[in-house]
Amino acid sequence: MKIARTLSFIAGITAATLTTMPTPAAAEDVTKISFMEVIHSLFYSPLYVAIGNGYFEEEGIAFDLIAGQGSDKVTAALLSKSVDIALAGPETTLYVETGKSPEKIRIIAGLTATDGSFLIGHDPATGDFDWATLKGKKILGWREGSSPAMFLRAALEKAGLNPDEDVEIITNVAIPARMGAFMSGVADYGTFFEPDVTTLEANGFYAQTNVGQAVGNIDYTVFIARQAYIAEHPEVVGGFVKAIAKAEAWIAEAPEADVAQVLQPYFPGVGLDELSQSVLRHRTAGVWKTSPAVAPEAIDALQDMLMHNGLLAVETKVAFENVVDPSFFAQSAQ
């Protein structure tokens, strides 16, 4: 049943919540593409740095930021050809590859190295957080089959907990309603991405720990495109990956205050101090990739996780080359 539910999202298009964000002024010789991100989050800061620092403009690429509110919705838009390039969880590429869609998609670049969500509680954390203390608690999670849902389960299992028996995970709250639901007391804990983490802390809640640190490095958010689009527009895809590579290298070394200045136009409701703290929080957790390359080992680990959660049949394990197009990795490093 889980596998059937997971694959069903490719059958049709679900209306997305659209949020248009500013992009630099386009040059005369520019290619305007259609792009969609899964949600709008500081977790994806290297993407916004690539826009704000003009790296996409240097490559002759322009686009508006549209948040699809879920990898299932983003991938459906990609398959319908409403979107050219998208930011989503890598598991969606596997679901499509093993499904019945005639259109296939490939990962063209990696953005985040592991889960960037943070466990939020009602009380301050004392010392190093012990995941085992969540036994008997109610946790506001994410849609079943999504990356944050799987990584939360993995973190609980590493602490010796059975996610189906030792805790209660709420998975049916829509993304736009999650923060309000948590603040109203629907759960003891919840996992959230920035800038929601900063907002919740400002409202009297407390970040406990990072989920990704508990699980380890498995590529978590990637850029994807249809195989046909990649074949038809290799210069655009190559330029896109190159811009991301520049941003990943810059954000790895730049002072937090400088990064905050670049990010502020994309998060107008968050102050510079809070943005700097968020950059430091993400760096400390080690969630941003320093190169867009996605390794075969990461895809193997992801598939093992999917199979363990009953979301991918063992007999349908996919070869790396049927998931990732690595042809732009070396080019982006030049």
Automatic annotation (TrEMBL):
InterPro entries hit by this protein: SsuA/THI5
Keyword terms, alphabetized: Signal
What are the TM regions of this chain, as residue ranges?
Answer: none
Q: Which positions carry the signal peptide feature in this UniProt record?
A: 1-27
Answer whether the UniProt record assigns the keyword Signal to this protein: yes
Major location (coarse): periplasm
Q: What is this protein called?
A: NitT/TauT family transport system substrate-binding protein
